[in-house]
Write a structure and sequence with these properties.
- By secondary structure, the protein is α+β, with helices and mostly antiparallel strands.
- The protein has 6 helices and 13 strands.
- The longest helix is centred in the last third of the chain and has 20 residues.
- It is globular, with a radius of gyration of 20 Å.
Length: 293
């Protein structure tokens, strides 16, 4: 595609490994085409507001944080053994599917990751092969059982270049959790809390003294990220689809202006390098340095 001079709008994680992501990025660079990658959660206006508050020192230096991406789409053992569960076609499972979003949010809000230690698990080791066409996360019965080849669950401890510490956790088999994505970021003088399911709200604690500090809810408004392009006043709901509209805007703007807007293939490479480091950590059972890019 890039070799034909076509600009690239692609879903994360861009291939099965960082080598795949690097190859796609190199092809786009060689062809001088623009790219946008589907790290859509960074486009939520409350996330943009959080980034501004962190960068402006409003919660002091970040000390530690927790990022979660919990879903139940694979929680049922009757879920069909589709391509998602095959390493050759689905890659690293929940690492590529959900943890990639977590890695991008960590980088977007807090900066580069320097080292990590990770753990993964497969909790539903076998699933039934579908006997006919499937769509989405279909449940089936009666098919021949086959092995689940990639991970249902992943967790990691991250050391950031800034010195902050982060816990990152992702699961596709979290019973009772539907799209429970979000973060808690703690600084020396405050904290921020975001839940994708309440996308327009940001919990904010800041000021002195740090002890016994209260948390207030701030509703995203026209001054937060791209909110003003969608709604005229604070607290009017936006949706997941709006985040994809922002991606489309970034894609068209990058083509029109000939320079990157939003998350591009180089962000995908950086995320893939972290995912590869997680895989290496699981294999070796210890801390792994994340190469600088």
């Amino acid at each position: 595609m890039a070799g034909a001079g076509k600009h690239v709008w692609v879903e994360k994680p861009v291939g099965l490994t960082s080598d795949d992501a690097r190859a796609v990025a190199a092809a786009a660079d060689a062809a001088s085409v623009q790219s946008v990658v589907g790290f859509n959660y960074r486009h939520a206006p409350a996330v943009a507001l959080a980034r501004d508050l962190i960068a402006g020192g409003e919660i002091g230096p970040v000390t530690h944080a927790r990022f979660r991406f919990f879903s139940d789409y694979a929680a049922s053992p009757d879920g069909a053994l589709t391509w998602r569960y095959e390493r050759a076609r689905g890659g690293s499972g929940v690492l590529g599917d959900l943890a990639s979003h977590g890695v991008d949010l960590v980088r977007f809000l807090l900066g580069d990751i320097s080292a990590l230690v990770a753990d993964t698990a497969v909790f539903v080791p076998e699933r039934a092969r579908p006997t006919g066409a499937t769509a989405g996360h279909a449940r089936v019965g009666g098919g021949v059982l086959g092995p689940v080849e990639n991970d249902d669950y992943a967790s990691a401890l991250l050391r950031l270049a800034s010195g902050a510490r982060v816990v990152l956790e992702a699961s596709r088999i979290a019973v009772g959790e539907q799209n429970n994505y979000g973060f808690e970021v703690h600084g020396a003088t405050g904290a921020l809390f975001w839940d994708f399911r309440r996308m327009g709200e940001l919990g904010v604690a800041r000021g002195e003294p740090a002890q016994d500090q209260s948390v207030r809810t701030v509703y995203a408004g026209p001054g937060a990220g791209t909110y003003g392009a969608f709604q005229p006043g604070s607290a009017i709901a936006m949706s997941y689809d709006d985040l994809k509209v922002v991606e489309a805007r970034d894609f068209l703007r990058s083509v029109a202006e000939g320079r990157p807007w939003g998350s591009d293939l180089h962000d995908a490479v950086r995320a893939a390098v972290v995912l590869d480091a997680m895989t290496s950590s699981v294999a070796g059972g210890g801390w792994v340095a994340v190469p600088a890019i």
